[in-house]
Amino acid sequence: MKTTRVCAILLLIGCTATLSADTNQPEYVKQCSRSDPKLITCLIDALHHLRPYLSAGIPEIELPAVEPFRMDELTLSLTGGVNGYKVQLRDLYIRGASNYTVEDIKLGTAFQANVRLPALILDAHYSSSGVLIILPASGNGTFHARFGDARALVKGNVSTKPRDGKTYLNVDKLDVELRVKDVQMRVRKIFNNNRILTEATNLFLRENGQEVLKVMEPQLKRKLSALFAGIVNQLLRHVPVETFLTP
């Protein structure tokens, strides 16, 4: 149904809200009408209205803050061979996800949204092993990355579940794909602060940023999709469709 498809998009990107017991509209809710001829514009405006609330979190609807959001780890094989250069990033914290702009939404049996992010900032613990170019490069330190002008393509589908006379949604499948125009990466405090190894690693990251990101992409896609689907479904268990759209 049209209502289901519209709410799926709204909830997918993070638009979550409930009405209080006395039906007063919370400040973070911008409701839309199903009869509005500019419904898509209204939905996009509602998503943009929510940005500061998503950043801080909304405890009353069990929405955690998305600034920052945490990922457990990424394991990367950057060069091949027996002594290939391998990197593990642990305790990743990513900032900038709430500073989004929704550029387009397509509704249908499968939904799709195009989202722009000015920058995603990633900080993590860094450990490496193997040989980088010709230098042994095993060590630990910190990793920092800036993914500038990022575009996210969000796709998925939902199912509906009636409960207590209202309709609730569940995300059955969610995929997030990132395209990043500007990639900057660097490491610090590694190899016991060995200047030569640190500079060699940072030179490698500067010259091969897009290639390193490509190695990250399969894991990033899988982890981001699972992370966002989990957050969305947690919200959907508490928020009925009827909350967001008026007749």
UniProtKB/TrEMBL annotation:
The keyword Signal applies. The keyword Signal applies. The gene is LOC106742308. Belongs to the TO family. Pfam families: JHBP (PF06585). Residues 1-21 form the signal peptide. One of its GO terms (cellular component) is extracellular space. GO terms for biological process: circadian rhythm. InterPro entries: Haemolymph_juvenile_hormone-bd, To_sf. Transmembrane segments: none annotated. It comes from the Eukaryota. PANTHER family: PROTEIN TAKEOUT-LIKE PROTEIN, RE70318P. Keywords: Biological rhythms, Signal. This is Protein takeout.
